[in-house]
Design a protein that fits this description.
Elements lengths: L19 H46 L6 H10 L3 H6 L2 H7 L4 H12 L1 H5 L5
Helix pairs in contact: 1-2, 4-5
Length: about 130
């Protein structure tokens, strides 16, 4: 398959050079350009991954802060100290109080929410 400028995929590209010094300079420029392209690709992948992790964290915060009486600050505290939603669900009131600055009333409500079906199946009234 021949591309623009007569380059064939899988075959080396020959760059005309008038002398050895000019050839070396062209090789360095090509290597630098390839390095820049690879670096830009890595940077774009890292940027995409960072955006994805922020989006996942926003969704995670949304889920935790949707618990009754749990505000964004409380959700952040739970996520950073306790961890996953599964860990929050398994955490006892004492564990939540010990690891966060959440009030006793909210810690009790969070632990009851995950353990008492009557509590988590009842309609949420804000």
């Amino acid at each position: 398959m021949t591309l623009l400028y007569g380059m064939d995929i899988g075959k080396p590209t020959f760059v005309p050079a008038l002398d050895l010094e000019m050839g070396f300079e062209k090789i360095v420029r090509i290597a630098h350009a390839r390095g820049v392209c690879k670096k830009q690709d890595v940077v774009s992948k890292l940027k995409t991954e960072r955006e994805r992790s922020v989006l996942v964290m926003d969704v995670f915060l949304g889920v935790v802060s949707s618990l009754p009486r749990v505000e964004t600050h409380d959700a952040n505290a739970l996520i950073q100290t306790v961890g996953s939603i599964e860990a929050i669900a398994k955490a006892s009131k004492e564990s939540i109080l010990e690891n966060t600055d959440i009030s006793s009333e909210k810690a009790d409500m969070i632990s009851r929410f995950f353990r008492d079906p009557k509590f988590y199946l009842s309609p949420r009234i804000s």
